[in-house]
Amino acid sequence: MKKLFNTKLWWLFLLIILLAITYIASAVHYRLDLTKEKRFTISQPTKKLIYGLEDKVSINVFLSGELPAGFKKLANSTKDLLQEFKEVSKRNIQYSFTKPGEGLGDSAQAQFQDSLRRLGLNPMNIHAQVKEGEGQEQRLVYPGALITYRGRAIAIDLLQGQSAVDGINSLNNAEALLEYKFARAIQKITQDSVPVVGYLSGNGEPLSYNVYGFIENTLKHDYVTRIFPIDSFPEIPSVFSALVIVKPTVPFTDVQKVKLDQYVMHGGKIMWLVDELYAEMDSLQRAQNDFIAFDRNLNIEDLLFKYGVRINPDLLQDLNADKIPSVVGSMGGKPQMELLPWPYFPLLTNYSNHPIAKNLDYVVSQFPNSIDTVKADGIKKTILLASSSNSRVLSTPAKVSFQSIQNEDDLKTFNKANVPVAVLLEGKFQSLFANRLTQPQKDAFAGPGAFANSSPDNKMIVIADGDIALNAVTQKEGPLPLGMNMFTQYQYANKDFLSNCLEYLTDNSGILEARSKDYTLRLLDKKKIESEKSKWQIINIVLPLLLVFIFGILYQYIRKRKYRTAE
C-alpha cells in the first residue's frame, strides 16, 4: 500500500477507492432504529407485501414546494419511508414529489385536480411562504399521493381520519399512519381479487340514501358487495367473507338466528351495528319537546350474550358531544339559534390502542347504548370505542329531550368514564343452539357442512349504535359524506373506523398492524422554558467562551513551561 501511494498515479487509485465507497454506500442502505417506539422500522407484513411485488408501482406525492413546517416534516417522513419501500421492493417502487398539475395549462390542471377529487383526494387551503422576506400566500395543498400500477390508479389522503382542529398532533398521527396507508393502498391496487361482503336485509335494515356513504363509498370502494336477504336462502353462503348488520328494526326469528349462528360457527365474520332502543331525531322533532325511547325487542340478546356481550336498553350521554342547532333565547318574537353540543350525540374514541381505532379522530354517534362484556369461555374482548370521562347512562324508560341538562346539578351526574360502545370479540365461539335443537333438527339444517357446536378461531365486532354507519341527507346536497355534521360541515372518522373494522375481519395479511405505531411528540415544557430561560442562555453563550478562555490559558501555560525547560 505504501509503494502504491509513492507512485505518480497515487491520486488515481485514491479516486477509484472513493468512487467505489460512494457506489457501495448508494447501493447498500442500512440504518439503525434507536427510537423507543421503533418509528423507522417497517413491519414484517409490509415487508412481505412490497418484497413480493411483480411489477413497478409508481407513487407521486403532492407535497412539494414551499410548505409550512408541519407539512415539510410530513413530506420528509414520507420520503424516508418510500426510500425504505424502494429498497425492500427490489426497486419495484418508484416515487417522486411534485405539485398537483405542475407544468400543465389552466384547463389541463383543472381537469387533473378534478380527477384527484373524484379519487377522494381533496385540497387544503393553507398559508405558505412565497420567498424569504416576501410574506405569505394562500395556496391549495393536496396532502396525499397518487399510486399507479398496471394501468390502475388509487389516491390516498394522508390526513384522512385526522382532526382538522388538532394541529401538530394530527400531523404527528398522520406520520404514524404513513406506513399503513401506503401499504394498504399498494395492497388494494395490486390484488387481483377482493373479499365479498354481504349487507343483510330482511329485518328493517335501511336501504335508503342514509346508507349511501356506507354502501357506495365504503363497502363497494373496497369489497365486492351484495345485498343479502336472509329469508331468501336456506343458509348464509360461505362465499361471504363478512356480513354487516346495520340498525335492524324488526325482531329476528329463531330460524334467522340459527342461520347467523351457524354462519359464525363455520368461520363467518359479522359486524353488528345495533340500536337496542328506538330513539330518532324525527320523533323528537315531531314531539316538539321530548319523548320516551322504547325497546325494539330485536330478539338477539341471547345470541350476543352467548358470544360475550350484552347491549343494554339504555341511552348514553356525554358532555363531549357533536353540535346541533339549539334555541338559546328569542329576539323580536323569533327564536335565537346557536350550535351547541348535544349529549345524546357522543363523540367516541379509542382507549385500548387497538389498531382498528388508534390514531383516529372522534367517531360521532347518535343515541348509542352502552355495552357490557359477559363471561364467554375462550373469548377475548377488546373495547374499540368508548365515551369520555364525563358521561352518564339513562336507564329505561329513557327520556329524550332537547333540554336534557337543566342546571349545574345535572352536570354533576355526568360522572361515568369510558363507557364501552363498540367491542371486538375474538376466539372460539360456542353455538347458542348446541343444546337447544334436536338431532333431527340439526340434521335438517342445510348449512355449509354439518351443524357445528363451536367455531374455529373467529372474530366479530359489536357496535351499540346503528347510526354510526348512517349519513345525513339534505335537499340541496343529497347524501353527505359518512360522519359529516350537516350544520358544521365537520367530518368525523366514522368511515375510517368502519373500514378498519371490516379490514380487520376480512384481511389476514396483518397490514393493519402498521396502524399500531406510535410517534411520540417529545415537546419542550413551556413553563420550564420560561422559568429557566436566563440560565440556559448563560450556559449556551458564556460557557463556550469560558471554555475557550480556559483552553487558551492552559495552552499558553504548557507552551511557556515547555520552552522554558528546553532553555
From TrEMBL:
Ranges in coiled-coil conformation: none
DUF7088 domain: residues covered: 36-148
Domain of life: Bacteria
InterPro entries, alphabetized: ABC_transp_unknown, DUF7088, Motility-assoc_ABC-rel_GldG
Record-annotated ABC-type uncharacterised transport system domain positions: 195-501
Pfam families (alphabetical): ABC_transp_aux, DUF7088
Residues passing through the membrane, by range: 536-558
Signal peptide: none
Protein name: Gliding motility-associated ABC transporter substrate-binding protein GldG
Organism name: Pinibacter aurantiacus
Top-level taxonomy: Bacteria, Pseudomonadati, Bacteroidota, Chitinophagia, Chitinophagales
Gene encoding the protein: gldG
